[in-house]
């Protein structure tokens, strides 16, 4: 069985600047995988590459064994891969509900996620559904961004730095949703700077540094020193 997502010697550039150097990761059905690493390690670039925001050579990214690295973002969404981008990128002129509905335009398939089930996942969004999305708190806006991605009923959910700038209690609520999203059938990649949080939720972890994977495996395989070295480099 091919993996849901596999990258093979993935490279990525911004103009002449190379941000990723030969990254191999995979995501299998039912898994939650975390990508950790310091600022600038290349985590967002990896997510943007899989999501088709940065295009690559086709064979560098495989979805169920098929090369998709050269596809544009809307085609990637149509294949069931949805990104919750860093910084949420909500539509400020739209209400909460309209932002959620936007997520359904790219792909119309039946699945567990509808406005109703997203409101059950995040009940506060139902209360706030007629408010402009940007009038919500940071944590609530993050819930809208997750809900918008779920509206395409993805098999694969890519989440970039969800907890950045949020209070611990809010982060806890958001992470509680992931077990439900996973139980509903999606495999998940979470980009996270908070190592403890990542190790808690992930089946497997990749650590990146300076555009390369420096450590990979199951959380129980690592001790603090391994992670410190992979995250910050040898001292
Ligand atoms: P962060 O936690 O800061 O988001 P990250 O691990 O997600 O870090 P990336 O955002 O992928 O890292 O950045 C990887 C490298 O690419 C960094 O050196 C960054 O400065 C550079 N970079 C990111 N976006 C761009 C861009 N749009 N144009 C040029 N360089 C970029």
TrEMBL record:
Residue ranges of domain ABC transporter in the record: 5-235
Q: Which GO terms describe its molecular function?
A: ATP binding; ATP hydrolysis activity; branched-chain amino acid transmembrane transporter activity
Q: Does the keyword Transferase apply?
A: no
Q: What SUPFAM superfamilies does the annotation carry?
A: P-loop containing nucleoside triphosphate hydrolases (SSF52540)
Q: What is a biological process (GO) this protein takes part in?
A: L-amino acid transport
InterPro entries for this protein: AAA+_ATPase, ABC_transporter-like_ATP-bd, ABC_transporter-like_CS, BCAA_Transport_ATP-bd_LivF, P-loop_NTPase
What CDD domains does the record point to? ABC_TM1139_LivF_branched
Q: Pfam families, per this entry?
A: ABC_tran
Q: Give the record's keywords alphabetically.
A: Amino-acid transport, ATP-binding, Nucleotide-binding, Transport
PANTHER family named in the record: HIGH-AFFINITY BRANCHED-CHAIN AMINO ACID TRANSPORT ATP-BINDING PROTEIN, HIGH-AFFINITY BRANCHED-CHAIN AMINO ACID TRANSPORT ATP-BINDING PROTEIN LIVF
Q: Which family does it belong to?
A: Belongs to the ABC transporter superfamily.
What name does UniProt use for this protein? ABC transporter ATP-binding protein
